[in-house]
Amino acid sequence: MAAILGITFPIYAAIAIGYAAVRFGIFRPGDMQVLGRFVLQLALPALLFRALASRDISEVLQPGYLLVFLLAGLAVVALAFAWFSLTAPDRRRRAVAVLGSSCPNSGLIGYPMLLLVFPDIAGLVLGMNLLVETIVLIPLCLVLMDLAEDRAETSLLRILAGIAADLIRRPMIIGLLAGLAVSVIGFDMPAPVSRLFDMFATATSGLALMVIGGSLVGLPLAGNKAMAAQIAVAKLVMHPALAALAAAAVLATGMADLPPDLHHAAILSCAMPMLGIYAVLAQERGLGGAASIAMLVATTGAFFSLSLLLWWLV
């Protein structure tokens, strides 16, 4: 148990420090937005580019891992859609619930934790996670959210084009694609350039966790608490359970190779709380309350669920 706490304690201590720093006035809530932009627009893109560009493409894209992560995500989307079709009051709330159930926070929480558990592959895992999330999971959930708005004049093709245009402009996606391109070409970056990217990448973990903690201060907590609890349980329990089933199926059928470290990393990645901008996306649909409660419950509850999962896996 001491070894498990050695992993989870630094993660949640950094989150708690970020929360306390805002709660007691050391930083203002607006400061977290600035720090968050630094992480999302500079530090994480640099980390992704460095992690992918410095390796051969055969190391960067692991078919077994990508398949497990994709199957688990799609299974959660399908099951959450079915469940919340029965329990959510309307389609807009159902779409927001599906997003929270299926899209993990791979960058701000997942990467720092994997860096402690699997330091050699943490950057690669982050890159593969974001590849699947960006191409499949997030666009699929955003399409469900847009379709729930009943905009008769907006076609599905127009919705997809708008989502793709928004995603392709994000610095993390640019860093991901640039890193993949350099990996394919096989270009060796000069040492000074590598050190430059390393400087930004090393700023990622602690600052990202502080941003998560500080962002929890002042969340609107008036909303459907029962639905929020269901979203949190789906994210912390159902998603990693389906990842374990997907990994077992891939290994049993021999569809792809899945080394033990990547096997465990896939399950851990799916066990992370929902993506950091979840409450913001929900607020755009007027549903920030339930999403904020779900995010708060999942972020705090993950301390216990991740500790149990680490005890089982590691």
Could you characterize the architecture of this molecule?
By secondary structure, the chain is an all-alpha fold. The chain contains 15 helices and no strands. The chain starts with a helix and ends with a helix.
Describe this structure in a few short sentences:
The protein is mostly helical and 314 residues long. The chain has 15 helices and no strands.
Based on the model shown, name its key terms:
globular; 314 residues; 79% helix
Please state the overall shape, judged from the principal axes of the Cα atoms. globular
State mean pLDDT (0 to 100 scale). 87
Strand content: under 5%
Count of alpha and pi helical runs: 15
**Low-pLDDT runs:** none
How would a crystallographer describe the biggest sheet?
Answer: none
Task: Report the span from N to C terminus.
Answer: 11 Å
Q: What's the helical proportion of residues?
A: over 70%
Radius of gyration: 19 Å
Number of strands: 0
Order of helices and strands: HHHHHHHHHHHHHHH
The structure class reads: mainly alpha
Topology:
Layout: H1 2-23, H2 29-53, H3 57-60, H4 63-87, H5 91-102, H6 106-117, H7 122-147, H8 156-168, H9 171-185, H10 191-201, H11 204-215, H12 225-253, H13 260-270, H14 278-283, H15 288-313
